[in-house]
Amino acid sequence: MKRVVVGLSGGVDSSVTAYLLKEQGYDVIGLFMRNWNDASVTLEDECPWIEDSADALLVAEKLNIPFQVIDMSESYKERIVDYMFNEYEQGRTPNPDVLCNREIKFDLFLKTALDLGADYVATGHYARKTSTVDENGKEVFQLLKGTDNNKDQSYFLCQLSQEQLSKALFPIGDIEKPEVRKIALEQDLVTANKKDSQGLCFIGKVSLPEFLQQQLKPKEGIIVEVAKDWEGYKREIPTFENKYEALDFEAKGYSYKQEDAEVVGQHQGAHYFTRGQRKGLGVGGKVEPLFIIDTDVTENVIYSGQGVDHPGLLKKALFIKEEEVHWVREDLALNEDETMEVLARIRYRQPLQKATLHKAKSGMYVEFEEAQTAITEGQFCAWYVNDELLGSGVINN
């Protein structure tokens, strides 16, 4: 009998995952990961891990499977939280959920599971895994979108390797969310009607400004507004020697200076904000809502513009450094000067966009057919062909 360790999070998705695997004849063990100890930065009256671990225990008892809580808070702080602080300090916006899957669930948690004699680890992700055999007889694993388009979570798994995928199971990937809740109700699982978790991976609903202020000190600066008809948007496009220079020009976008804009407010630190953000600026009296179009953490200036159609929000290309290009399908990795037509997204839930990958010596350019809103440095761009996620990388404009 194959043994599988399920990451029981205390939610309905992982609960049904454990149930389905037991029904399929696996030897199932439930583990709850305690990744956070500091309740001072969660929202008032919420201490998510205590309630969640209690629910996970009740599910394990109902399913009659072994259960234990493992403390990974020290590793989580080092690998996820410290990384987040460092990225925000540099004016980048990280995605901790993608990192949590790569560094915690499918690395440290996976190693713990293997030490328990497991053949696989399973999570409640809405994603699918299949495999093919290459010409040399080697099994190649494929990461596919979840069947439920509204819940597809393949994006969060975009940094997994072939080795990690080989040990992963996603039992609810071909089930839609209402059916998952129906199964939980039929099995009388305590999590059946529990709301989906929000906030940081395994921390819960965190007050992000307070969280960041733990380590990043407030630093008062100005908010300036760049007009939609700013002269810089009428820049002449220079002549380029090759396509990579042209793509680099597009990926870098516009360079702003304080003298190009009107001071409209103040902030407590440019490193607390991100491109495309609308809330939290505290500037009113505008015809259209203000959006952040750029941040300068060196000068501590936030550049903003009115409306979702502001030119400063739109770009048609992005760049990923060579060392941050990751292929789930290593066998399909591009060589220098090769291109690939793909569908890509720059954030979770974004509809897939037509794009072309251009492999340069220095990294990867992703050129979109249509201009994208708020391409944000530090986030992950993931690319697909049909339903299969082939690779991803950290945006570095």
Description:
With 397 residues, the chain is of the alpha/beta class. The protein has 3 domains: 3-213, 3-Layer(aba) Sandwich (Rossmann fold); 221-239 and 253-311, no CATH class; 314-394, Translation factors (Elongation Factor Tu (Ef-tu), domain 3, Beta Barrel). Helices cover 24% and strands 28% of the residues. It is built from 8 helices and 18 strands. Strands 5, 6, 12, 13, 14, 15, 16, 17 and 18 form a 9-stranded antiparallel β-sheet that branches. Helix 1 packs parallel to helix 2 (48-63) and helix 3 runs antiparallel to helix 4 (96-115). The longest helix is centred in the first third of the chain and has 20 residues, at 96-115.
CATH class of the largest domain: Alpha Beta
N/C terminus separation = 49 Å
CATH superfamily of the largest domain: HUPs
Detail the poorly predicted runs. none
Largest sheet: 9 strands, antiparallel
Q: What is the CATH T-level topology of the largest domain?
A: Rossmann fold
Number of domains: 3
Mean pLDDT: 91
- Class of secondary structure makeup: alpha/beta
Helix content: 10-25%
**Count the strands?**
18
Q: Please compute the radius of gyration using only Cα atoms.
A: 23 Å
Strand content: 25-35%
Element order: H for helix, E for strand: EHEHEHHEEEHEHHEHEEEEEEEEEE
Please state the overall shape, judged from the principal axes of the Cα atoms: globular
Subcellular location: Cytoplasm
Organism: Chishuiella changwenlii
Domain tRNA-specific 2-thiouridylase MnmA-like C-terminal: 322-395
Active site: 100 (nucleophile), 201 (cysteine persulfide intermediate)
